[in-house]
C-alpha cells in the first residue's frame, strides 16, 4: 500500500540534494508534487528523474524562499493547482561561507539566515493557513546536526538551524490541535552538493581526502545517502507518523550524540 497515494506534497529546495531525493521517494509512494527551487533548470532535470520512476502530476515553481512574496506565491499556486496541500518538506537552504564568528561577514550572515530561517518561517506561515483550514497536514522542516549542537566556523548556518528547531517545536505545540503535525529532521553529513561544497572549502583540491578524514569521526564511518533522508521524510509526511509532533529527528549516523 502506497503511504502517500493521492497526497499533495510541496517541496522546497527540490532542485538537488535532499529535495530531489525526497521528491523521487514521495512520488514512488503515490504523491502528487509541487516542486520549488531558485533554479528552474534544475527543477526540469528533477522532474525527468521523478518521471523515470513514477507516473504522477508535477508542478514546477521557480522561487527564492528568502522573498516572502515569492513564498506566498508558491503556496498560492500549489493550492490553486491541486486544491490542497497535504505534506510540506520545508527544505531549501544553504551553508554559507566558513569563518570564525569575529571574521564572519554580516552580509553573509543575513544571507544565510534569510534563506535558512526566514524562508522556513515564511513557508510555514502560508502553508499553515492552508492546512489549518483543511484540518490536516504534515510539515517536515530541514534543520541540521548544526541546529542541535555547535559547529565551528559556521555562525550563520548554526544560528539559522537552531532557529528552525525552535520554530518547529513552537509551531507543533500551536497547531497539533488543528490536525497538523510538524517536525524537523537534523541531518548530519549527507553526501549532497552542499556538503561537497563544504568539503571543498575545507580541503580545496584535496576535498575527497578531507571527506574521508571527516567521516572517520562518525560512528558509522561513512556519509549518509540522500535517499536515506528521502525515505525518512516520506515516512514523516505520511499518516503513519501523524502523532510525531514538535519533534526533531537526527539522521546522522550517531554524530550528534558524540562528545
UniProtKB/TrEMBL annotation:
<dbReference type="InterPro" id="IPR036291">
    <property type="entry name" value="NAD(P)-bd_dom_sf"/>
</dbReference>
<dbReference type="InterPro" id="IPR057326">
    <property type="entry name" value="KR_dom"/>
</dbReference>
<keyword id="KW-0520">NAD</keyword>
<protein>
    <submittedName>
        <fullName>SDR family oxidoreductase</fullName>
    </submittedName>
</protein>
<comment type="similarity">
    <text>Belongs to the short-chain dehydrogenases/reductases (SDR) family.</text>
</comment>
<keyword id="KW-0560">Oxidoreductase</keyword>
<dbReference type="InterPro" id="IPR002347">
    <property type="entry name" value="SDR_fam"/>
</dbReference>
<dbReference type="Pfam" id="PF13561">
    <property type="entry name" value="adh_short_C2"/>
</dbReference>
<feature type="domain" description="Ketoreductase">
    <location>
        <begin position="7"/>
        <end position="188"/>
    </location>
</feature>
